[in-house]
Write a structure and sequence with these properties.
Helix content: 25-40%
Strand order of the largest sheet: 6-5-7-1-8-18
Structural class: alpha/beta
Largest sheet: 6 strands, mixed
Length: about 400
């Protein structure tokens, strides 16, 4: 467990946050790089370390951060053997993007755009049209998907360019709005078991002279949230998914590249009020706040009109030694959400944005009872959350 305590006499400055490597080494750069290598028009190969392949498969393991993988060689011997292949043989990770959370990252992967452009900049964010919080993972309340995220996906652009394009995932995800705005294009193949997904992904990869295939596994993240990354349940999932990666790698057709990556890492946060600050019981943090969005390590704070500067001042005073606390404009200027933020996205971002540096959460025990009880958490810009593998196998 890392040492969080009150050991930072000065508040953290906004520009001291380690901003993701947008444009050169982030999740949003992966699919455009692969598509550019298959001659899909208007795609840029921003991940310069990757060599083109005719057939590309991305296997995204939800919640498997670079640091967690490196710390578990016994549970993941196959992926450990590939660590040197990461990021085109540099042996380095890429970054997820801010916040390091599933809805944001999957949209970055599928659209090839950073959060400020695709417009899913958090777990929950305010919908400026209604003033309500919108959960972008579960799409509650329902919002018209094409208006919320209007850009085409890389899969749609590849499919239009004649590339054989497919997604292989749980049947549950086939018709969700998040899949529609982030991962649609080509054909969707629902398969329940991990083994069936690997076999179908290999089959789809071989189905075209140029192929782009995406497959996904969720339960490493699920066990991390429920039991923590220091649990037997989590280690069991890591062992299982390591075998899945090997199963897929052994079935690659000729001229193919497999990339294994993740949407974020994870960090276990101890229970107790030193590590879990309860917004619902803290009158100082609640003062002037109309809505609390985001998640425990990556908060969007929406102020009552006119109270924005007071809320920023208070959050800085209370949390500034453990969190990077920025105004909306400061976070945008610092590049937290990418090099640009579209006009339609601007007001979705909190008036105040708070990103955890230490082993600490801002929970909301009454508003978010399930999330507040999670052992493993993610969202912020620390290496444990941001750094994800980009392991490579070629046939």
């Amino acid at each position: 467990m890392s040492q969080h305590v009150w050991d930072h006499p000065e508040p953290l400055t906004v520009d001291s946050a380690p901003v993701p490597e947008y444009g050169s080494g982030s999740l949003a750069d992966l699919l455009p790089t692969l598509a550019a290598g298959m001659d899909v028009p208007d795609m840029t190969a921003s991940l310069a370390e990757l060599d083109p392949a005719d057939r590309n498969c991305v296997f995204l393991i939800d919640g498997l951060g670079w640091e967690q993988l490196r710390a578990h060689p016994d549970e993941a011997p196959f992926m450990t053997s590939l660590l040197g292949s990461s990021r085109g043989g540099t042996g380095r990770p890429i970054t997820a993007g801010y916040p390091a959370t599933t809805a944001t990252s999957l949209a970055s992967v599928g659209t090839g755009l950073p959060p400020g452009a695709h417009g899913l900049p958090g777990y929950t964010v305010r919908d400026p049209a209604t003033g309500e919080l919108m959960n972008q993972l579960r799409w509650i309340p329902w919002t018209k998907p094409g208006a919320w995220q209007p850009y085409p996906t890389v899969f749609q652009l590849a499919d239009a360019a004649g590339v054989h394009t497919a997604q292989v995932s749980s049947p549950h995800f086939q018709n969700t709005p998040l899949t529609k705005v982030a991962l649609s294009g080509g054909t969707f193949h629902g398969r329940l078991t991990g083994e069936d997904r690997m076999d179908m992904a290999a089959e789809q990869l071989a189905a075209g002279d140029r192929s782009l295939v995406y497959t996904y596994y969720a339960e490493v993240d699920g066990k991390g949230h429920g039991s923590g990354i220091d649990s037997d349940a989590w280690r069991g999932q890591l062992m299982y998914v390591d075998r899945l990666v090997q199963r897929l790698a052994e079935q690659l057709p000729p001229r193919a590249a497999l990339y294994v990556t993740a949407d974020h890492g994870m960090i276990d946060i101890p229970f107790g009020e030193r590590h879990r600050i309860d917004f619902d019981e803290d009158w100082e943090l609640r003062a002037g706040v109309a809505l609390l969005g985001g998640e425990g390590r990556a908060r969007h704070v929406y102020a009552v009109p006119g109270a924005e500067s007071d809320v920023l001042t208070c959050w800085r005073e209370v949390l500034g030694e453990q969190f990077w606390v920025a105004s909306r404009d400061e976070a945008i200027a610092a590049g937290w959400f990418g090099p640009r933020v579209d006009e339609r996205v601007y007001a979705r971002i909190g008036d105040v944005v708070a990103a955890a540096r230490d082993d600490v959460l801002i929970i909301a025990s009454e508003r978010e009872p399930k999330e507040s009880a999670m052992v493993g958490n993610h969202g912020s810009m620390t290496p444990a959350e941001q750094h994800v593998p980009l392991l490579e196998v070629r046939s």
